[in-house]
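Exercise 7. Given the encoded structure of a 437-residue chain, write a plausible sequence.
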């Protein structure tokens, strides 16, 4: 009992440090800001070498070429000659704020019990004061889609910005999409039961797909009935059928993708997005015909098959874009929360394997905004959109030069300090002092 109390006390201290770790969120913008002289990467493929950007009340009011205009500067003036300005980077399919420490169950709220969970909403579980979340900002990752995991239907995602007191302040768009983990036609052998460790055919694949179809059909039947007996999972499907809520399907294999396309047709789903799509290149024409977008897998991943090119994941986003598909980049996988901060550098890897630099930037800004349905206010530096942007000393897609000097969310000046930068300064000072003594 004594040991249990000690462990409980340690957990309490740890949770307290997590709860009160974040920088104080920035106040609302109350004065216009003018950024002049920077190379502006608009996010839609265009670049202005010598730009003039003005924003006030959280909105962009001017985005011009400074060499051809005599527009009067307004408010606070930031001279950014030799620097670069970018729209805030958007991280889709993320569990940021849902898990703080994987090994500590009290901080893990990404997966609910059950299989068909369309009524589960990730937003109330989002921890705006997460130390992991604040560590995204120094790399320019300012917006994220927060997604539940687990089950066949995981639940509903929402869009948040990464500088807030709580989830109510953080939310930009509620319940943006339903997430489905499509069954796999292959599965790994359960070695603990004496099965071979390698991949083998999943004999229950068709049965699992049928269960998903039946759930959709039963939901439709329920919604068409009198609904006297409340069924929350069925009722929550109404926004998918009547309002065209986006359906995000996590799927990789060629056979499975073909089945997803047919599922979309059978269920008359208006907005469907494939997350992963490892084998999507083989059926790209069918995907394009159905107007399906793709969030391509993290480029820094190993190939799935032994006979795939070693750099398959590096070049897959470009190959899919060359087929005319709307492609964005996501970062799920091993250590996904920590990997999210590297999203701009994943785009840089795609550039190194043939993609135009501005098109690669578009995959983590405007394309992701379009896929998530927030391109009317985010994703590019255009008049009328939110002033969510950052200034970097160099190329944002290169980890050697992406050094932020300023960042803004809806015009609010962000702190770029995190628990990591605090530790860096602390120990840099320590060892520097020891050198001089």
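Solution.
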């Amino acid at each position: 009992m004594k040991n249990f109390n000690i462990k409980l006390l340690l957990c309490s201290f740890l949770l307290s440090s997590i709860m009160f770790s974040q920088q104080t969120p920035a106040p609302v913008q109350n004065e216009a800001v003018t950024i002049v002289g920077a190379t502006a990467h608009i996010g839609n493929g265009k670049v202005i070498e010598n730009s003039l950007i003005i924003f006030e009340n959280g909105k962009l009011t001017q985005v011009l070429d400074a060499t051809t205009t005599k527009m009067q500067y307004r408010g606070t003036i930031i001279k950014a000659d030799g620097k670069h300005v970018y729209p805030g980077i958007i991280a889709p399919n993320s569990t940021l704020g849902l898990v703080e420490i994987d090994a500590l169950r009290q901080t893990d709220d990404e997966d609910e019990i059950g299989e068909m969970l369309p009524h589960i909403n990730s937003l109330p579980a989002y921890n705006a004061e997460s130390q992991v979340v604040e560590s995204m900002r120094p790399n320019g990752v300012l917006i994220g889609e927060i997604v539940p995991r687990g089950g066949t239907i995981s639940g509903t995602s929402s869009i948040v910005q990464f500088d807030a007191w709580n989830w109510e302040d953080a939310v930009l768009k509620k319940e943006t999409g339903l997430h489905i983990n499509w069954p796999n036609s292959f599965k790994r052998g359960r070695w603990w039961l004496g099965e071979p460790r390698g991949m083998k055919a999943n004999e229950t694949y068709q049965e699992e797909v049928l269960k998903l179809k039946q759930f959709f059909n039963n939901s439709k039947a329920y919604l068409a009935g009198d609904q006297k007996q409340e069924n929350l999972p069925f009722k929550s499907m109404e926004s998918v059928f009547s309002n065209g809520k986006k359906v995000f399907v996590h799927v990789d294999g060629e056979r499975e993708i073909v089945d997803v396309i047919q599922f979309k047709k059978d269920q008359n789903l208006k907005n469907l997005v494939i997350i992963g799509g490892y084998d999507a290149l083989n059926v790209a024409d069918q995907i394009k015909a159905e107007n399906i977008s793709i969030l391509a897998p993290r480029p820094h991943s190993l190939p799935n098959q032994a006979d795939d090119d070693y750099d398959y994941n590096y070049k897959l986003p470009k190959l899919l874009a060359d087929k005319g598909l709307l492609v964005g980049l996501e970062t799920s996988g091993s250590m996904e929360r920590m990997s999210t901060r590297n999203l701009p550098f994943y785009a840089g890897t795609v550039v190194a394997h043939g993609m135009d630099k501005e098109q690669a930037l578009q995959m983590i800004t405007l394309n992701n905004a379009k896929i998530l349905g927030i391109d009317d206010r985010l994703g590019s530096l255009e008049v009328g959109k939110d002033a969510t942007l950052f200034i970097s000393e160099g190329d944002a897609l290169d980890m050697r030069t992406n050094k932020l000097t300023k960042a803004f969310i809806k015009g609010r000046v962000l702190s770029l300090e995190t628990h990591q930068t605090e530790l860096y300064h602390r120990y840099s000072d320590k060892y520097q002092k020891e050198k001089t003594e």
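Remark. The two ends are 49 Å apart (CA to CA). Students should compare their own answers with the one above.
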